[in-house]
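Subject: sequence -> structure tokens, single chain

Hey, anyone have a minute? Need the predicted structure for the following. Not urgent.
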Amino acid sequence: MFVKMPVPVLSPLLRTDAQGELLALLFLRPDEEFTLSDIARRVGVSLPTVHAEVGRLVASGLLLERRLGQARLVRANPDHVLTRPLTELLELTYGPVAVLPEVLVDLVGVREAFVYGSWAARRLGEPGPAPRDLDVVVIGSPMRAQLADASLVAGRRLHREVNITRIAPAVWDAGDDPFVRTLTSRPLVRLDLETAHADANDRPANGRSARGKR
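Reply:
Had a minute. Here:
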């Protein structure tokens, strides 16, 4: 259960990093619905844990739920008095894992991407001050102009400067570049571009998207 896990460094106000990522998934993508099994897969926790956490949030009114066949679909409640401040808190703490894949998914030539620097260190439990900006490394060959635009979009959504560095796949794979060696010796948080691609392909032209029905 969440209460048995270490207190998160990114936001000591929350019980665990898993709870923070669950909330970020739901509140930073408020137009989408998710099944409990999909939440469990994306956050990387057990289904019983998600059942317990979602049940508490539904009971409080922070989440809305509906049934679609055997599936239980949940989403953030936009009218709850705590939704706006909670969303702002999540943007400043767990926002990168929820927002950055959406921003990067449409860029051509991106193989993989990671957050590094102080945010990654805090996310992986290294004590220190709250990150003031975000450092992202993209492995691939997207155009620099596209990366600059992505930095601006991500910065507006996450309320901080976002710096995106591009590294060619051959350089990354060789591992002998000094900058690459430095990066790989420090905390890195992989961004889930695969799921973001699947979401983009599943997203309807109009209306709310329901995740995890497959």
